[in-house]
Write a structure and sequence with these properties.
Length: 77
Amino acid sequence: MIYITNSDEKLPLVVCECGFKLLILPDIDEMALSIASHAITHKTVENSPEKAEAEYCRIEEMLTQKVLMSILKEKSN
Ligand SMILES: [Zn+2]
């Protein structure tokens, strides 16, 4: 486990429902990759491939939404 602490600047993070923290990256492709690679880990909790795929999509969508909301909030400040 790596803990990133930076007292001067608050790092933008999104927290998954499992508690996993994802750093919001300025590069949209890298961000998407980071979300996808975490969403894959949620596949392992489901037994059927259909359920695993649905769970993957749900997590990916949820995290993407959180990232966008966080960016919008940041911009409005
Ligand atoms: Zn998660």
